[in-house]
Amino acid sequence: MTTTSRVAMLRELRPPAERPFVLEEVAIPPLTEGAVLGRMVLAGVCGTDVHILHGKVPIKLPAILGHENVCQVVEIGGSKPLADITGQPVQVGDLITWLPKSCMQCYSCTILKDQSKCERRIGYGGWLPAWQHPYLVGGFAEYVWLLPGSDIVVVNDVAPEAVVLGDALRVMVHAVENVGGICYGDTVVVQGSGAVGMMGILLALDAGAGQVIVTGGPAARLDLVRELGADVAIDIFGVRAPERIAQVLELTHGRGADVIIEATGVPTAVAEGLEMVRINGRYVIAGHYGDAGTVPLNPHLINRKQVTITGAWSADNSHFLRGLTLLRKLSRETLDKLVRPRFSLTDINAALLATERQETVKVVVAP
Q: What is the pTM of this model?
């Protein structure tokens, strides 16, 4: 059994171009009862990781990032049987992922019944400190050490490339739930063509949307959007906002879309989306995990159209588990288009730079 793990350590916040990650060797602590040691298979690079490097999302330094993870169980601490959050046994050799852990005791968990807003949530990949036990608390590493009681999910029947899309998908499952669902035949506009937006497209199509319109970019992503099945893809770099609004209205007989999903993280997209939604339409903001600032809005639009506006912040375990239904449907061809390229742990800085430059939808690290 190996006694150390290589990790990509982040000791100070710097943009990806300044190569902030340094490879280090960290001792693997002995396992306690219920802890799990896993060898990393794939770690997705999230847009949030880029925001972290730019200081837009607070974390504890030094840190090991990587919160979209799949590993293979190498060892389980103690002698008691271990089960995942669905009750399925966890065994050595299983492929697993793990989710943020809510306390189930705070006001948000008990009164609001909203685990995604837990006041004491434990999150791997930047929110647990890498300077104290168990040290190996992020996916950008060879091994991960999961604390007893972690919210583990066995994913032997799901392709690892699909699992790393699960973080974006669970946010979008939450968003669609909060906005009241997508009805068969609805016209859905998805603002944004990153990983979260792509999951919105797939969910809308799977729900039976009559028309899916996407505003986003760059051009290569819009080609993929069309391949996934979107009816119309509007390039935000080549078409001005007033023209985009006019195009959506034309495609909807002047009425506007039934449902609009914001997945850009850009404040101006919200003002634009309110122009595109129909009377009694529904609008959900899912892209603003970090604070990107303010934008002027016209409240008259909301009042006159009687628009329902909601948000979706992160997700809880149920959103991921329901999202597995879609992840199991994704073909190898689709996964190969969505999840690429693979970087080694040695090339972690290049992986973050590729994500920042939007060179692909989901970059992954395979130690």
A: 0.95
